[in-house]
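User: I'm curious whether this sequence folds into something compact or stays loose and floppy. Could you predict its structure so I can see for myself?
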Amino acid sequence: MTISIPEEANVRLDFSSDMSYGDYLHLDQVLQAQHPLSPDPNELLFIIQHQASELWMKLMLHELRGAVAGIAGDACGPAFKQLARVTRIMTQLVQAWDVLATMTPSEYGVIRPYLRNSSGFQSWQYRSIEFLLGNKNAAMLRPHAHQPGRLAEVEELYRRPSIYDQSLRLLARRGLAVPDTHTQRDYTLPYTADHRVELAWRAVYRAPDRYWDLYQLAEKLVDLEEAFRLWRFRHLGTVERVIGLKTGTGGTSGAAYLRRMLDVVLFPELWSVRTAL
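Assistant: Here's the prediction. I'll summarize afterward.
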């Protein structure tokens, strides 16, 4: 049998003493990290779906941290690029649900007992993303209490200003009338909408030339929340398709819990201001 060699003068074929593609990506470790517990072949889909989502969330966290730091440091340009990337990642995660939705209720029913109490609800990366976006809830720290190092990492984001908090502080630094109650507050508490904050955003939208970077920031945040809503909505749809109204493996009410989460608004004044304009 003849092996065809690419007709490239400098193509590298010997990696006995050099780094290859697989070495760089540590593919042996990544591709050996799937360990199905059930006899059902569909479990591999379930594992890869969630592992791939966690990898995307790792990148999302990296970009969100950078965007929050950029806004806090008046470096809006790089923050906008990072927020745009986060929105695209969420779009990728929305589309990924299409693959998991090919699993039927009977297929998942074979796998489910082997999951025991493990659930995506316990994802520390997802929780960190929610905290960075401002959805603060102290009870959501408890699933990580058995890992003190991880708990400390998640709790640090829980106590830190969210991306919206930093955005309002930026508006205040630019001379807009954002009340002190919303720039110097207890950041562990859920955000409460305020008409005075809406007025500040209204000023931005009515004078985009004067506040161009703040105007762009507002739209990037709206893009972000819209993508996050779609991600949650598609999650709900997939859960309803696969398990109906059953409780989740982690003890939540399943689809009912996810439906309630759809009502959470992260940046309320950026939505209410649209009615006023």
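Summary: The chain is about 60% helix and 0% strand. Residues 212-243 form the longest helix (32 residues).
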